[in-house]
Each structure stands twice: as structure tokens, then as C-alpha cells.
Amino acid sequence: MILEVRGVSKRFGGLQALSDVSFTLTEGRILGLIGPNGAGKTTLFNVINGVYKPEVGQVIFRGEDITGKPPYEVAQRGLARTYQVVRPLQELTVRENVMVGACFGREKHHKGPAAGIADEVLALVGLAKKADQLAGSLNVAEKKRLEMARALAARPYLLLLDEVLAGLNPSEISAMIDTVRQIRDQGITIFMIEHVMQALMTLSDEVIVLDYGELIAAGTPTEVVENPKVIEAYLGDPKIAQRLLAQEPPEPQ
Amino acid sequence: MKAWRQPGFWLPVLFILVWGLYVLIVRQDSTREQAFTLLMFVGLASSLNILLGYTGYVSFGHIVFFGLGGYSGFYFLSAHNLPLMLSAILGGVVSAVLAGLIGLAVLRLRGAYFALATIGVNEAARAFVSNFEPFGGATGLFVNYSVYEGFGGPGPALWRTFIYLWITVLIIVVVSYAIKNSRFGLGLLAIREDEDAAMVMGVQAPRAKTVAFMFSAFFPGLIGTLYFFKNGNVEPGDAFSLHMSIEMLVMVMLGGMGTVFGPVIGAVAYQGLRGFLLTNPLFKNLHLAIAGVFLLLIVLFVPAGAIGWLRERSLKLRKVLE
Questions:
Q1: Is the pLDDT of residue B2 over 70?
Q2: CATH number, domain containing residue A23
């Protein structure tokens, strides 16, 4: 068990963002997280990697309680993440961005080896040619890949991907799906939030569903989409579920 | 990356090396005095740049480290008869320790709040020193004339002080370069660009910021001691002057925040401009106002500063200018 979330609750003022969320994640698998906007998905990521401290509950990562530890300590233990809204270090080059991950992540490399790792990871995500450009000059799809490269350079055990497919066009999506698979094949466990259902259904070994901060379903992708609770609470309209099963793209939001 | 092969390293180092040698060869008191002031600002601007340029935190009250470190060094020198360089280093240590303590409390603040807090610290230090008897209260401290004996008279003492300052500034530029090109420096740059994202990537921001703050405070304390020794006295008005603090900011921004050479060029250029304005009958009362306008124009039109602007122009210059 690489990650175990036990009864986590998080409140912002009057809003219960997460209530009593529990689940586990087995090493080497891809776990998907879905839920309508505002369901608390990104909040859950923020609780796991230490950006927020939950009021109740625990986060156990590789057998260690990391609840409430600051994000850099969590990162150094081998848990990396990407942001839904990309956050490149604009005035640094693409290579330098990735080197930050290698220098300060789990393996804490010096700059020399970090540059080597950066180039290797940039090749994996297909940004090798852009290594010397400023990160601010990349387009959205490239910035998403940069986020991923940065996270990977830390050599994490667990990677949290927050909507890496959002805003990409179909060909970019299929390229990104291949990249995610390659990452998994390297032995890195993945926990991903995704709105592009079709992609999530093909990638995930398991899916969990959040709605208004509560975990309402868990199972294989097919089980989850057939779950009446999910259809009712998350999808609202059963017809959408049928369309999803037919692997059509979801309606734009 | 071998630093001694990089033009970005050699350019500022050679510049200061040659400049100091020139002053030593010419051996005129007026040249030395002018170079002393200029080099002092080069050192101050380069120190501030470690915080402002690399870490992205604006310290409006940075002169407090020059003032308090200078006061402390001067005190060790005049009250305890410690050697000049040792006193200066101790002055730097006092500044660095103060920065460490302030950092723990204040570096949690970001943006404008941090900038405001640093002004508060400077004003508090001024008020404290003005009422602190060991530091001579409002009248300050004076050099005990016997101190000069160790140097063979006041004249040689001033030359020695200049050489100390020159070496200090050389070290500052080397340290500035070393920090920028180190793993630690990469963490600082990451904090500057996006502190939250940096922390999520494993950068221990609270500690890194505090260490950067301490570095950028140590050297002003050292320089302050040398400067006040050269002057022969120290008083609260000279030590904690807020407008000097703002001038330091202008120098860094003029030359280029976050570059090694920028603060060097910026300090020299600003001092040149200031000298012109002060001796020009038309502007002499307005030089601060003009500095303010200058800051405004830089922020609006050349936020990257002179060196930053050049670096943006071409890839070749990027490799030469650091």
C-alpha cells in the first residue's frame, strides 16, 4: 500500500470541502479521481501533499504518517504533483525548471547530475528541443508536459496528476496518454484527477468518485460508471453515462 | 560548469579587480574616496540583490543591516580595540544573526507586507540605537585616535580600509555568482518565480529564504563597519537612512535584478548620475525626486534592468552576461 487516506475532513469556513474520505492506493497502479466541479478533488490533492492540513484524518504515505507535514517534506519523501493551472517558473529555462525537481525532490541531486536527469526526463515527455527556452515561452500543451517533467525529475514513488489532459486537443491528448502509460511502466504509481472521461476510463485500474466532498463510489472504471449513485449524483443524467460508455467525448463545460 | 571559465564570472570580477588596482596605482586621496563610495554601493547593491534579485523579496529597509552591523563593528573596534577586519566581520555576523531572527518572524509575509515590515525594522533599529547608551545614543560613537597607531597614522589607515573594502566587494561578487549558480541558488530562483510551486517541488522555502536573507545582511554589516571607520564616527542618522535604502533598490533595478553584473553596473551608473545631479545647481535639491522618477521609469519600461535587457536581446549575450 503506497498511499492510505483515512477519514480525512477539510473545511473552509462554512464549506465542507472534504468529509470523511478514506481510500487506499496500491503500488504500481493508476487510480483515477472524478467528480463534478467543486467536488473537492484538488483539495484532496492539496491535503495529500501537505498544502492543506486536514482537521480530521490521516494521510499515510509508504507506511509513514505525513499528515500536516509541509509540502517540501512530502515532496522529499517521494510524492510529486502537477497543477491543474500550470505553474511554470517563467523566467527560468525549461531545463532549469526540471532541474528544480531533480535537485529538491526525493534524490536531492547536485546541479550537474540534475541537468542530466532533466534532459532525460525532457526527452521522455517530448520537450528535449525546448530545453534552453524560457518556460514562459511555452504553449499550454508544452507547459503541461513541463509540469509533468518537473514532477518526474524528482523520481517520485507516487505522482499526483491534476487534469493534465484539460485544454489539450485530441492528438495532444493521445500523446499525453502514452506518456502517462510510460510513466506507469517505470514503476511510478499514479493518482490522477481527470475530466476527459474516455482517457480516464482507458488509463485507470481503479476510479474513485467525489461528490460534495464525500466519496460516493469506488471500483473499476466500468463499475463506477454503472453505479447508480454516480449516475445520479455525479453525472446527473443517466444518458450521459451511457454516452460515456460509448466512449464519446463529454459535453464541454 | 567551471566558474573561472565563464565570462559571466570574469566580467564583474575583472571589472572590480582592475578598478581597485587602478586606484592603488594612482594613489590619490580623492580618487580613493570616490572609489570607496562607489565600491561600497556596488557591495551593498550586490548584497541586496541576493534577496531582491534571486529570492524575489523586496527589502525597503535593507540599510538596517549596514547601520546596525556598522554600529556593532564600530563598537567592537572603538570600545574593545579589536582589529578592524575582525570587527567588520563581527559586524557582519551581528547583521546576519539579526536577519536570521527577523527572517523567522517576517519572511512568512509576502509581497508588500514584507516590504513594509522591513521599513518598520529599520525605523525600530534607529529608535533603539538612538537610545542605547553603549552605542553613544543620539550622538553616536567616535573613533578612538589611538586606533590609528596600529596602521601607522590616519593616512595609511584609510588606504588599508579601502583595500579591505575592495577585497570585500570582490568576495561579494564571487559569492553572488556562486549562489546564483548553486543548487541553493536554483531553489531561491524557484521561490522567486512561484514560492508555492517551489515548495511542492521540495524546496524548503522558509529555510532557504532565511539563509538568503542572512547572506544579503552579512556583507552590508561588514561594509558598514569599514565605512564608519573611514568616516571616523557613526551616528543614527547616517546609519539608518531610509533614502540610502531606496537608492540601493534603484541601483539593483537599474542594473538588472537577479544578475551578477547588474548591481555592479547599476551602482556605478546611479552614483554617476547622482554625482552629476548633486553638482548641477538646477537639480541639486531634487536628486532624490529624480531617483524616484528613475525607479518608476525602470519598473515601467525596463523591468529587467540594463543587464537583463541585454540578456533578453540575444542568446550570445546571455552566455556572456550573468
A1: no
A2: 3.40.50.300
